[in-house]
Known about the structure:
By secondary structure, this protein is α/β, with parallel strands linked by helices. It has a single domain, classed as Rossmann fold. Helix content is 40%, strand content 16%. The protein contains 11 helices and 8 strands. It has helices spanning 5-21, 80-86, 114-126, 139-150, 169-184, 190-196, 202-215, 218-227, 235-238, 256-265, 286-298; strands spanning 45-49, 53-60, 65-69, 91-95, 132-137, 155-161, 245-250, 269-274. It has an 8-stranded mixed β-sheet with strand order 1-2-4-3-5-6-7-8, sandwiched between helices. Helix 10 links the parallel strand 7 (245-250) and strand 8 (269-274). The longest helix has 17 residues, at 5-21. It is globular.
Amino acid sequence: MRPTRPRLLLTYLLALAGCARSAPHTTSAVVSTAAATRLAAAPDQYFTIRGGVRLRYREVGRGEPVILLHGYTQRLELMSELADSLAKDFRVIVPDQRGFGESSKFSDPARFGRVMGDDAIALLDAVQLRRAHLVGHSMGALVAANVAARFPDRVRTATLLAGPFFPDSAGLASLGAPWVSALERGEGFRTFLMWLFPEISDSVAAGASAELLAANDKGSLVAAMRAMGGLIVSPERAGRLRAPALVAVGTGDPLLPQSRAMAAWWPSARFLEIPGVNHVDVMLRPEVLRAMRDMITAGATPRPGSSP
């Protein structure tokens, strides 16, 4: 049965509101050596990088390392279902990207964009990993592609879920400009949500917009969207990438053409198009999870004595 998109969106937003209103998850003085089996049970951990940026993350599971990067307006708790699923087989590390969740907030666009890719590398260094598999959703997919392009020796595979993969920053800026202006005028995300989820009503979009605004820092929302073009990977650069990639998107997602384009640019990419699935639901589709697991396993770190 085809999912009901308004219900999916409302479930997502209720989870977001719950995360925003709950007390912060405190870091224990000594982190247990036993790996958590659920992201919700994992302790918060923090590290600070140049510029005074403090980033929160959690770990769940054991095995091949996977960095899971959330999308715009999101936070690590909203990645729980995907993280818990992957943690059955892998070590999954989920950060709050700068500007979101419990990580540092900024209102200056210069503190976003390209430096968000640098944050992913800083996270790898913080957890003492030379290489990892990247899984990103929406804005997180754009970050993952940027990291793969700029730091190819740090990325084993890249899974890109429903990303805004425009060929240049101007295209992305043109799309986002009306929504940035609406945010700055205090009008919220209503028109953005009605574009992203075409089947929802105006009243549902208005309610969802209010929840998103309550759960996020307005300055960071505006700055992150203004700077997102700095993460763009051009067709020429994508054409030189050699890491295995999975690009997945639903036919109910208005960003479908952009994902098709990225899969065509990236020589070793596999493209997975899921009929009737929206921008959020693509993350947990069984066929996507299966393809992701297969690619991560095939691209796993070689055991000592084996070929690299």
